[in-house]
Amino acid sequence: MYQLKAVEKKFPGVHALKSVDFEIKRGEIVGLVGENGAGKSTLMKVIYGAYQPDGGTVMIDGKAVRFQNPRQAMEKGIGMVFQEQSLIPNLTVMENIFLGYEQQFVRLGVINWKAMSAAASRQLAKVKLDIDPATVTSALSFAQRQLVELAKVLTLEERVDGDLVILLDEPTSVLAEDEVKMLFAIVRELTKRASFIFVSHRMDEVMQLSDRIYVMKDGAVVDVVPQGGATVEQIQHKMVGRNVDREYYREQRQKPYDASKVLLRMDGVSLPGRIKDISLKLHAGEVLCLVGTEGSGREAILRTIYGMRTPVAGTLQIKGQAVASFNPQAAVSAGVGYVPRERKIEGIVAGMNVFENMTLSQMGRYSRAGVLNVTAERALARDWIAKLSIKAHSELADCGNLSGGNQQKVVLSKWRSGGSDIMLLDHPTRGLDIGAKEDVYEMIRDMSDDGVGVILVADTLEEAIGLSHSIIVLKDGAIQQRFDCLPGAKPTLFDLLHYMI
Amino acid sequence: MKRLMTRENAIRWAPMLVLIGLVILFTAINPAFLSQRNFARIAIAAAPALMVAIGVTFIIVMGSIDLSMEGTVGLTAVLFCFAFLATGGTLAAGAWVAIPLILLLGALIGLVNGLVHVRLRIPSFMASLAIGFVGTGAAVLVTGGDIVKIDDDTFRALLTWRIAGFPLMIYVVAALALLAWFIQSHTTLGRNFYAVGGGEELAHASGLNVRRVRIMGFVLAGVFYAVAGILQVAKLGQAESVSGANFMFISITSVVVGGVALWGGIGGIWNTVVGVLIVNVINNGMVVIGLPDFLQDGMLGLLVILAVVLSTDRRSISFVK
């Protein structure tokens, strides 16, 4: 019924979808699995019309179609239930359900709320949600909102002639077990109304719900597994089965760390709802990787160390000093540097030039009585531009106009030039092309040589294994397992996945 | 690859071109516009407004807004007169003390403003608007609605003593604009304003004390408002509770016309200087070409919209609130 044939999608430097064939039949539930960066989200975006494919065809009932935007896809019966929910919290449930489609209830410019409420109740009944449609959305629980979102997508049923295809993006990631069961029951029942594409990191759930599972790797579909056709382990092998290139991660440059010098020590640190009882040590010259799925507590650990969150239990010691007050200023002055995932939001200030960005965290060193020594700042920036071969026309270039890789280099040099010796890197290679990634790997090895301790949340598992001296696997906020990663004796992807999911 | 007419450059120079265009336009209609005497007149009219506009520029660069200027200017002007009279009535007799005293008062009002905004987490426009009203009210209270006059020739020399045709106060204002530029581009505080305006999350994540930066911004703005208050007295020789009237519209439109982005991080003192000149040239030009005064306000409004259209880059933002 819905079909993709040899669909291609390219972004600058990334071949995101490589000749993907995909098919979904009426009333079918299809699972879609793959590692981060395997191309799942790109494929979803092509399906619901947010991206236009560069090649190949999209077909509905054998006819080729082309969507300019998600709305056109919706008119053909393709709906998306977003992971980050798309409901507007200050509107009522019924307003959200019919957002953008209120016209059907309008007479002489006035909305007939009763009719809308009745219609909304009908939608909510489909997902077995018994709430007043006039409830303000923010008053609902997360699971309820998820169902409202589903109900909203199901309004397509009345608007569209053909069959429905509904994408569910990580719908269970924040649900409790019984809520997941309820959601699955509802989805199964709804298969008489629609087909579903189910995307999740939780392999057992995908196996449980799906009739068929598409396994993606590096932008291509590597296998299609029918229900019961493979074990969790076999699918995981398909997801990651590739040769790790040691050269690529600069493994030959990995040297043993200085075990006598503890830079950072966490003991029994807990943040309610995020992490529990985390204990770890970071040594000089060590690259410590935190591995886990989204929401497993990796970021919370970084943010705690950086002082953006205050733990309710446990202690954090930086270079032997117990941290008393948790705030970024204190962390920075203790030598902690943080490279956040959202480069655009927390990494660089667009509109400020290279040298201003570099000295942002260390203006005290470049000023006397509040007056800046711009000459020294610019000299520093020129120095690092040369050292890291940052592609900027000069230190006066606006950072907002640099490429992602060069922005990341600016962020890294900001901390390195300030003498930070505990570096927290959250997805430092996200969105970078291969060359820029290799530059970042090179810089991480340089930092280790200088005795810097690095805590890394890597973009892929290979990256984590390739770069790290030690790996800590997290699940639901708790440490599952710790691995030593000596060159030549590294754990396999499968070892890690086993503890992750 | 260097191109002269990039979009970036066009945006940067647009306010200057608008200013030059206006001067040419008014001169074409009435050649008397282009005279040194008239320019001096424009400069005098612009001087206190420039101080207010510079003050609010720091706030706008941070992405906030300050609407307390009318109250602050009014109160500082009135209290300056009282302090001046109380400390001798002439500069020579020791009344100069009133100047640092009032600058300190401006800083204090700014501090209260900043604390209310940051500590009580009230949006800056609301906090400062309220403080502004408190200021105006206080000015009425201390004057009882009367006018306070100052009669000191040495002080009034700010207006009367002319060098190369321009009164002394213009040079004072020019020096203070230079100082403001120095603060903006050569101090950590100035850099911090841009960091907060360009990315507050990031400034925080870089270990900046964002709350302190915000409060300091309001303090600095308060000092510049106090300067404007003193200059108002120098210009008119008197003060009353409404001495700060109209500064809100003039200063904020000037800042925006000059190309400082209201969402923060973009533009600076030079944009503001050009913006103040644009608004004052428009004002003066309409008088010179003999537009009836009932048309002038409306025309000013229209020209301001036109100038904003020409001089700011509005394509980079998706929603205007």
Write the topology of this structure.
The complex is a heterodimer of chains A (about 500) and B (about 325).
Chain A: E1 2-11, E2 14-24, E3 29-34, H1 40-47, E4 55-60, E5 63-65, H2 70-75, E6 78-81, H3 93-97, E7 106-107, E8 110-111, H4 113-126, H5 142-154, H6 156-159, E9 164-169, H7 177-190, E10 194-199, H8 203-209, E11 212-217, E12 220-226, H9 232-240, E13 258-271, E14 275-284, E15 287-291, H10 298-305, E16 313-318, E17 321-322, H11 328-333, E18 336-339, H12 343-347, H13 354-358, E19 367-368, E20 371-372, H14 374-387, H15 404-417, E21 422-426, H16 434-449, E22 453-457, H17 461-467, E23 470-475, E24 478-484, H18 493-500
Parallel strand pairs in A: 3-10, 3-11, 6-9, 9-10, 15-22, 15-23, 18-21, 21-22
Antiparallel strand pairs in A: 1-2, 1-4, 4-5, 7-8, 11-12, 13-14, 13-16, 16-17, 19-20, 23-24
Helix pairs in contact in A: 4-5, 9-18, 15-16
Chain B: H1 7-29, H2 36-61, H3 69-86, H4 98-119, H5 124-143, E1 148-149, H6 153-160, E2 162-163, E3 166-167, H7 168-186, H8 188-198, H9 200-205, H10 210-236, E4 238-239, H11 247-257, H12 269-288, H13 293-311
Antiparallel strand pairs in B: 1-4, 2-3
Helix pairs in contact in B: 1-12, 2-7, 2-8, 2-10, 2-11, 2-12, 3-4, 3-5, 3-10, 4-5, 4-10, 6-7, 7-8, 8-10, 11-12, 11-13, 12-13
Architecture overview:
The complex is a heterodimer of chains A (501) and B (321). Helices cover 33% and strands 27% of the residues of chain A. Chain A has three domains: 2-240, Rossmann fold, CATH 3.40.50.300; 245-334 and 453-501, Rossmann fold; 336-420, P-loop containing nucleotide triphosphate hydrolases (Rossmann fold). Chain A is globular. The longest helix of chain A is centred in the C-terminal third of the chain and has 16 residues, at 434-449. Chain A has 501 residues and is of the alpha/beta class. With 321 residues, chain B is mainly alpha-helical. In chain B, the strands form two sheets. A two-stranded antiparallel sheet of chain B has the order 1-4. In chain B, strands 2-3 form a two-stranded antiparallel sheet. The radius of gyration of chain B is 20 Å and the shape is globular. The mean pLDDT of chain B is 88. Chain B: Keywords: Cell inner membrane, Cell membrane, Membrane, Transmembrane, Transmembrane helix, Transport. Chain B: It is a multi-pass membrane protein.
